[in-house]
Design a protein that fits this description.
Layout lengths: L54 E5 L4 H15 L6 E5 L15 E4 L15 H20 L3 E4 L1 H9 L3 E3 L4 E10 L1 H4 L10 E8 L2 E4 L5 E5 L7 E4 L3 E4 L7 H10 L11 H8 L7 H12 L4
Parallel strand pairs: 1-2, 1-3, 3-4, 4-11
Antiparallel strand pairs: 5-8, 6-7, 6-9, 9-10, 10-11
Helix pairs in contact: 1-5, 5-6
């Protein structure tokens, strides 16, 4: 494992200063010291997490609106502040060496990369990112270090562990019903969720089959693997735990020409995604952070 990370910067965004418009963190969210309410993971925005080692957030979205929106949503629903969630945009610069001992856990966001794309069709940036994440996962899995990957993260972790990832079980952008497996219902992170809940999805590829050592935690009608766990502490979800209707609407506009749907259907997809709030997917973020937040 590498022993250095952010060697010459304390900004939390490698290679981008805090003063830069694209490097600035989102505003802090969560409880303030004078808030009299007790802390708890049932808070809609997540508990205020204090005096802990930071979590590391890895993003891969090249589009600034989508990248910043994703990061802000993770802050909002996890209860972490910007100082407690160090951000690296992998599509912009190499990851470098990560000292996992500095962190409470690692979060890997989504993005337009597909692990199952033919190698000749992958950009040099995608190949670099895949190699860096794979090397990080070598350490994460070996140490059973807390990790949560969403969407892109499930394909990356799945391939790393020997799963079959292809385009058979892709799902259109929208709301789907997620159902927990028996293992999901007894899991330390997923076990507090209802047996069935709704979440937002939208993906071209998905895990087709899992190797025997990987634990399936959830599925949907069209996608047999919506979440899984490796060891005790390494997680991945196909659905987006950070995504609400506002975030989905933004991503539909940003990615309308990326092959997820015919561009002319963007407004229809947004309209059909409206409905009651879905409070349960963010609980995955809140419960993960609450379980693994470690004191310095």
């Amino acid at each position: 494992m590498c022993s250095r990370f952010f060697a010459d910067s304390g900004s939390g965004v490698r290679g981008v200063t805090p003063e830069s418009p694209r490097g600035r963190h989102a505003p802090s969210v969560g409880r303030y010291p004078d808030d009299p309410r007790p802390l708890g993971i049932d808070d809609r925005r997540g508990p205020r997490v204090c005096a802990v080692k930071p979590f590391l957030f890895l993003g891969t979205r090249a589009e600034d609106d989508a990248a910043d929106g994703e990061f802000m949503a993770v802050l909002h629903y996890s209860g972490l502040t910007e100082r407690q969630l160090e951000r690296v945009r992998l599509e912009r610069q190499p990851l470098g060496c990560v000292d996992l001992a500095r962190y409470s856990g690692v979060l890997l966001g989504g993005g337009p990369f597909n692990s199952s794309d033919p190698e000749p069709e992958k950009s040099s940036v995608q190949r670099r990112v895949e190699g860096e994440v794979a090397r990080l996962l070598d350490d994460v899995v070996a140490l059973d270090f807390p990790f949560l990957g969403a969407c892109y993260g499930i394909g990356t972790l799945g391939l790393h562990q020997g799963a079959t990832v292809d385009r058979r079980y892709g799902e259109p952008v929208g709301r789907v019903g997620i159902e927990l497996s028996d293992e999901g219902r007894s899991d330390d992170v997923f076990g507090g969720l209802p047996d069935r809940f709704e979440a937002y999805v939208g993906h071209k590829e998905a895990v087709h089959t899992l190797p025997p050592h990987v634990v399936r935690l959830a599925s949907s009608a069209a996608c047999p693997v919506q979440a899984f766990r490796v060891g005790r502490n390494v997680y991945a979800t196909q659905f987006h735990p950070e995504l609400d209707f506002q975030g989905l609407s933004l991503r539909v506009q940003v990615y309308r020409n990326h092959g997820y749907f015919p561009p002319e259907e963007a407004e229809r997809i947004i309209d059909e995604a409206r409905g009651e709030e879905m409070p349960h997917p963010p609980e995955v973020l809140r419960r993960f952070v609450a379980r693994y937040a470690a004191t310095p």
